Amino acid sequence: MTSKGQAEDAGHARYSYRLRVSSTARTALEAEWARCRWIWNECCARSKKAYAEEEKCGPARLDKMLTEARTANACLRAGSSVPQQQIIRDFAMSRAEALKDIKARLPQQQRAGMPKCKKKHAADPSLNYTQRGFRLKDGRLHLAGGIVLSVVWSRDLPKPPSSVRVYRDSLGHWYASFVVAATIEALPATGRDIGIDWGVKETATTTSDAHDLPHAQHGKNAAQRLACYQRMMARRKPKRGQAGSKGYREAKRHTAKLHKKVARRREDTGRKWAKKVVRDHDRLAVEDFRPKFLAQSTMARKVTDAAIGATKRALIHMARKHGRELHLVHPAHTTMDCAQCGARTKHALPLSERTYACTACGAVSSRDKNSARVMLVRAGLNPAGADRVRADGPPARSQREPGIPIP
Fold this sequence. Notes:
Layout (H helix, E strand, L loop, with lengths): L3 E6 L2 E9 L2 H30 L6 H14 L1 H4 L3 H23 L22 E5 L3 E4 L2 E4 L3 E5 L11 E6 L5 E8 L11 E6 L3 E5 L6 E2 L3 H4 L1 H14 L9 H35 L2 E5 L12 H7 L1 H14 L3 E5 L25 E3 L6 E3 H13 L17 E3 L8
Parallel strand pairs: 9-12, 12-13
Antiparallel strand pairs: 1-2, 2-6, 2-8, 3-7, 4-5, 5-6, 7-8, 9-10, 10-11, 13-16, 14-15
Helix pairs in contact: 1-4, 2-4, 6-7, 7-9
């Protein structure tokens, strides 16, 4: 499997690799996860009690709980303290985010939700190790507790990792995800700018026809096979409280495998397109579009299949990785403004109208192409065919690696 790098934040990147796990290492990892899962569930119980009694339940109190539990429980002492401490950190962060949303009085559907108990057969193992809990030696990953894992090194790590997460996916495959300091791989300057507008008919429409991203329809192409596997699951679905048959488990595995294959294809398409855009342009004006609200519309299936959010994250990551200048433009009124003169239509255009005609200057162009040019104008860039005049609307936000001056 090819390793993949994803931006964790502006200063770090994550690299994931497939693991070859022996039966002995698998047993040790599952035992370590059983201890961490018990600690998580104990934290949930303590959190509910503290919330009902209006007491504090921060990381310090949970650390004290862990110390007492390890003293009284020989099973917990048999495992490493590093993943146990890290799962408490994860629980505390999740609980703090939920309390923050409650305090802000957000609608129920927008809240993060309080942490819930992890069930034995429903939660996949996920173990976090800091620098003192792992080391790399002779190409193998050595974890605290004497666990040794073989890593499939598809490429070298750019720098020594600061932490690692060992996890198992829904197909039973094990992975190691390393966090390393981000490095800038500078590309030759091109002197070109590009504006990018997200859409449904085409995933991305740009000011350059050669860099438009058509809708790949990976999910639609796999829909027939997916429906077949789902019918197999429905016919073999066990009654409540009963274990699934071998046929049901096999159909479930095929369904999960196909879902993952589609997700990988979407990710691969987005990353390849993002690399092409970043390689050919110095400055990018990208619509800061959040497709979450479309999940409740009639276009939900097509929007999900387009994977706009994943493609946008890949583009931001590539721009940071290669030191390109990136502007995130607020999407308000981008379909109503004219890229030539900056005039705004009185009424929002319906989705069925795909041509933009300006009543002020008479310019006629594709609706999506006009929106892509508006991105450039609002970002203050100077592309071919777009004026430097700034259109009315919210300002753009720049994202760039620290320490690199913006021209």
